C-alpha cells in the first residue's frame, strides 16, 4: 500500500526503525508515547481555544509541532504550526476548523502506525478510536 | 589500529519524545555517543559545563532559558562545545543571529532524522551546516542573510576609510595579497591595517572580523 507521506514520512519512520532495530519494543513505545502526548496536547489546545488563552495555544501547538516533525507526522505538524501562529497572533478565529483538521490528521497517523506496528502502539485510552 | 573516539553529544530539547527519538537515532551510529540530555536552557548550560560534550544539539524554543540565550551563554562560556541549533522553523534573521552567536549548524526538526548524523560529522570536521548541507562559503551566506534582513545604520567604530575598505574586501574572502593588489599597497601595509582593525574592533581573526562586520552593519549596501 502506498504510504501517505504527509501522514507519516516513510523515510523518517524507516530510518528510526532501522536505528532501533535492536529494540523493536522501544521503537513501538517511542511512537506510543508520541501519540499519547499528542492526544493530550490536543486536549490542552482545545481548552486553550475555548478559554481564549493565546499563549497556552502557542506553546502547546509549538511543542506538538516539534515532536511531530521529528517523528515524521508532517500533517499534524503543519496543523500545529497553523495553531501556533494563531496563538502567536492572539487570533483564534479559525481555530475550530484547525482543531478538527489536526484531530483527523492525528487519527490518520495513529491508524497508519497501528497498521505498521500493531495495536500495541495505540495508547490505552485511544483504542476505541480505531 | 586505534578505534576512533566517539563524538560526544548533548541533546537539549524540552520534549521527551524528541530526545528519545534523537538519542536512539544518533546512538545507532557507532561514532556518536549521547552523553546527556537537557530539558531546558538552564540544564543545557549546566550539563554542557559539566560534561564538556563535543556537540550540543540545542532546541531554540525551550523553557526557562530560551535556546538563543543559552547559545549566547555557551559562546561566552569559553567551552569547546560546538552547537547545532535544532528548530521547527527559522527565519533568516534568526539564522544570522544563531551564527553570530556561535552556532555551527542549523537543522530543521523535520530533517533531523535524515540529516543530523551527517551534520554532526561535518561540524566536527570544522564545517558549518545550513539547509541540509555543508556551507561552502560562510561569508557569502552571511552576506546574503544580512542583505535579506532589514538594514541598520552603518557605523564605523573608529575605522578609517581605508580600513573600512579592507574590512569590505575581507568579508568578500580576499587574501592579503588580493587586497594589496587592489589598493596598490604592500602586503605588510595590509597586515598593519588588519592589526589596527582587529584592535579597534576587538576581534581576533578574519572570520570574527567578517562576523563582526555583518553583525554591526559595517559593510556598504549592495551596489553602494
Question: Any chance you could write out the topology, listing elements then pairs?
Answer:
The complex is a heterodimer of chains A (130) and B (224).
Chain A: H1 10-19, H2 24-50, H3 54-71, H4 74-88, H5 95-117
Chain B: E1 7-12, H1 16-27, E2 32-38, H2 41-51, E3 55-59, H3 67-76, E4 82-87, H4 92-100, E5 103-108, H5 112-124, E6 129-130, E7 133-134, H6 138-148, H7 161-171, H8 176-183, H9 187-201, H10 206-215
Helix pairs in contact in B: 1-5, 2-3, 4-6, 6-10, 7-9, 7-10, 8-9
Polypeptide structure, described:
The complex is a heterodimer of chains A (130) and B (224). With 130 residues, chain A is mainly α. Chain A has a single domain, classed as Four Helix Bundle (Hemerythrin (Met), subunit A), CATH 1.20.120. Helix content of chain A is 72%, strand content 0%. The radius of gyration of chain A is 15 Å and the shape is elongated. In chain B, helix 1 links the parallel strand 1 and strand 2. The relative contact order of chain B is 0.10. The N and C termini of chain B lie far apart (57 Å). Chain B has a five-stranded parallel β-sheet, sandwiched between helices. A two-stranded antiparallel sheet of chain B has the order 6-7. Chain B is 49% helix and 15% strand. Chain B has ten helices and seven strands. Chain B folds into two domains: 130 residues, 3-Layer(aba) Sandwich (Rossmann fold); 88 residues, Winged helix-like DNA-binding domain superfamily/Winged helix DNA-binding domain (Arc Repressor Mutant, subunit A). By secondary structure, chain B is of the alpha/beta class. Classes of the chains: A mainly alpha (130), B alpha/beta (224). At the A-B interface, helix 1, helix 2, helix 3 and helix 4 of A face helix 1 and helix 5 of B.
